[in-house]
Design brief:
By secondary structure, this protein is α/β, with parallel strands linked by helices. The chain is built from ten helices and 31 strands.
Length: about 425
């Protein structure tokens, strides 16, 4: 789905989603997109994690932005920091359709020392605090803080309604996860009404959910505030020299102890079609998780329905010709099975299975690609055999290269995870010839 000339109507019908109300129209979405994503290794050497490609067509940030847009929110700010050029270029190309005369706005906010000449964003709360003047200029009644580096489909309206109906100071969106799988999250300890009574960061023994003790509520890093209250809290936190100026570490724990913080169950706002029985949310912050989430899309019935037309994921798509498959000889047949192949790709006598090809990839004769994520503009040489790989943008795979069959050799030449996923960059290819 390319970027729209006009935004999608917030009242469009969809599965498992309540009707939109007016609250989203008086809301600003503030998207935090400054993270490096260091666990993605060389994949984020040239781009921030939110700018990493996903699913054959999108960047990761497109999911958070589309959730806000599809919910009816028309004022969006994106705070960037780490290696932001690729991200900013994408936002300018694909998200430039907002119009001031419709009371809409889309602001890209690099760390620009607006508060102090020697301060970059030092935490998630500080990223919002340093742009208070812009928020006050729009004067939204509510603000939703979104993380720009997760893959999910979510309607923001139920969280806004919960804030108003329960007269809360903050609503924290949470995932229900098996209790002992929550040790890597910030976990909300709630009472029977989902009021948060304690916030525990990466606990060894996570507190269970009342009535469902085998599960815990893990924070998704999504928060809803009444805007004026949020700005007061940001100013209070900014004046605290002992604070890390972070929502998860400082703002939310403070409100748990001194205000009314309420958990929101993601299952109440997750948008899913009839093909998605479970609420889908992924942090694709490691090479293994990134590879798995992409390859999951090649399943006959994937966990994330990217073909759902009622909740489109908007993005910028370059003008490109259709994908092309050529040659029909035994051993030299252009074909793809259980794969996503994007526009501009040419599969020229090669074969791929359970793989994702982004735009402009060329697969040359006699090559075999299995369970691989191939970013844009890659050229795969003849007779190459690639299995369980992630190939960075613009890489030229030499003819005859074999990856995924010799773990020791793969680890010497490329970045290989313990689960056998191999990341290939052009620098790694170049070092092979030294």
């Amino acid at each position: 789905m390319t970027s729209p000339g006009l935004p999608v109507s917030p009242a469009v019908a969809r599965v498992n989603r309540p009707d939109s109300g007016p609250l989203a129209r008086d809301t600003m979405a503030f998207v935090l997109a400054g993270g490096r994503g260091s666990r993605l290794m060389e994949l984020t050497d040239r781009r921030a994690k939110p700018a990493v490609y996903f699913g054959g067509t999108w960047r990761i940030i497109d999911f958070a932005l589309s959730n806000a847009l599809n919910s009816g929110i028309r004022r969006i700010c994106v705070a960037t920091q780490y290696k932001a050029h690729s991200l900013i270029r994408h936002l300018q190309s694909g998200w430039n359709f907002f119009r001031q005369e419709r009371k809409e706005g889309f602001d890209i906010l690099p760390a620009s020392q607006r508060v102090s000449e020697d301060m970059w964003y030092v935490g998630t709360a500080d990223a919002v605090y340093q742009n208070i003047d812009i928020i006050e200029g729009y004067d939204p009644r509510y603000t939703i803080i979104l993380a720009g580096d997760h893959v999910y489909k979510m309607d923001c309206e139920p969280m806004l309604r919960q804030l108003v109906d329960q007269k809360a100071d903050v609503i924290v969106s949470c995932l229900e996860v098996p209790r002992m799988e929550a040790t890597g999250f910030g976990v909300m300890h709630v009472d029977e009404n989902d009021r948060i009574i304690d916030f525990v960061e990466k606990p060894a023994d996570p507190p269970g959910i009342p009535g469902n003790p085998d599960f815990a509520l893990a924070s998704m890093g999504i928060y809803v505030f009444e805007t004026r209250f949020m700005l007061e809290e940001l100013r209070r936190d900014a004046a605290d020299p002992d604070s890390s100026h972070d929502f998860g570490k400082n703002i939310i724990p403070y409100l748990v102890k001194n205000g009314k913080a309420v958990a929101h169950r993601f299952t109440s706002s997750c948008v899913r079609s009839h093909n998605e029985p479970d609420a889908y949310w992924r942090d694709v912050g490691t090479l293994d998780a990134y590879h798995e989430a992409n390859i999951d899309l090649t399943a006959v019935i994937p966990s994330l329905d990217i073909f759902e037309r009622d909740w489109p994921i908007w993005t910028y798509a370059e003008i490109a010709p259709p994908a092309k498959f050529v040659h029909d000889l035994e051993g030299r047949r252009g074909q793809a099975v259980s794969s996503l192949v994007s526009a501009g790709c040419i599969v020229s006598g090669g074969a791929l299975s359970n793989s994702v090809l982004f735009a402009g990839v060329r697969v040359n004769s006699f090559s075999r690609i299995e369970s691989s994520v191939v970013l844009p503009d890659v050229d795969i040489g003849r007779r190459a055999r690639l299995h369980n790989t992630i190939i960075d943008r613009g890489v030229r795979i030499p003819p005859g290269l074999v990856v995924g069959e010799d773990p020791e050799l793969d680890a010497k030449r490329f970045r290989r995870t313990d689960k056998g996923i191999v990341l290939i960059t052009q620098n790694m290819i170049d070092r092979m010839s030294e």
